[in-house]
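Researcher: Dear colleague, please comment on this protein.
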Amino acid sequence: MPHAGRVAVIGLDSATPQLLFDRFAEDMPVLSGLRQRSLWGPMRSVDPPITMPAWSCMMSGRTPGELGVYGFRDRAAHDYGPLAFATSHSIKAPRIWDEMSAAGRESVVLGVPGTYPTTPIRGAMVSCFLAPSTRARYTSPPGLRDDLEKLTGGYMLDVENFRSPELDRVSQQIFDMSEQRFQVARHLATSQDWDFLSFVDMGPDRLHHGFWKYCDPSHPRHEPGNPYENLFRDYYRSLDRHIGEFLECLPEDTSVMVVSDHGAQPMVGGLFINEWLRQEGLLVLAKEPAGPTPMARAEVDWKRTTAWAEGGYYGRVFLNVEGREPQGIVPAKEYESTLDKIARALEGMDDDAGQPMGTRAMRPDQLYPEVNGIAPDLLVYVGDLRWRALATLGMGQGLYTTENDTGPDHANHGDTGIFMLSHPGLTPGPADDLSLYDVAPALRELLGLPGGGRLPG
């Protein structure tokens, strides 16, 4: 086992290679300088590339199927009710800080998605944006909350309603949250004992969802000359300063890793996936919606319904299976053929201009070595994640739209994030075929924990 070292992980949610390694590299001298001293490259995310499973997969080395977590919300039972929100209790596998605690060693965990409610560790934990408010117990130990409130004057769990037309407010809160997150990271790094420190800044993700069309000339709905045209550049310049200040407070022997859970890309449009299922005769309503209606509130004729879907960055199709769902009609012997038929139809769809969308429809057992919990019967990447899957019924817009159904949004997740590792003895340079699943074995190796693996590259 290697010598147990000290490791700091800087998590930048939704950070993309095309922005940090290319477009804004010259605007980020600190990060670009660190990259020159690091093993680095684009890093393939998990399937699906969603924040909630991705960070826990990264910190455990397990797949979403092994964790039984496929998004922020998952089915809790084979019924027709709304999906249940995933929490830290949904993650049964030990994550790196749990392994450190078991080894009697200290960790600092700050804002890593999937840590609410907080769990006891040796060290300190500040929960993620899933905490309902700062009135909740969002720190461990609990007394740390008072320390943070005094330090910050009001700790920000997230940007309030970041999918909002209040662009000035949202942009200011994104800048403020990132500044504060790094302030707290510096405070914890210098006031706590630790061998492992991991924190996540959600700022890049909120920036991308709120402002991509304003800042990316290649976005199909870009508005040249708009007042937010330089917001990406301004933000990444400020983020670079924060990274520099954080690096300065670390002990000299610290290995530094910079990672993101997934990437981002322009959202070309949205497909009303339940309306498509209705058009195909696979979803039958007992009553037409009076207006925009979430799937869980729709009046469905389940005795005539073959499949329904939930939406988001990717689509989830569920079959109404005889003997599994309360009013299931798909015979078990027809399960496979029904899925095949739906998958082929989705993958063969054209977009609103009559061009092939390039949709991918995948089964959990094709993606994961083990499938736990209640997985979608099909995971659907509409337009290979360039389009959003919209589950809302009753929008009266046909199958396609250019907007999101849950508030303004111009970006969808991409399947490639970033990876950088600066470590003594590791040869700097670009690395190929990096995977999010490389992170946990690398951390174990660096920290001297059991189960370590060869460092990437």
Summary: The two ends are 19 Å apart (CA to CA). The chain has 13 helices and 21 strands. The chain has two domains: 6-265+413-447, 269-408.
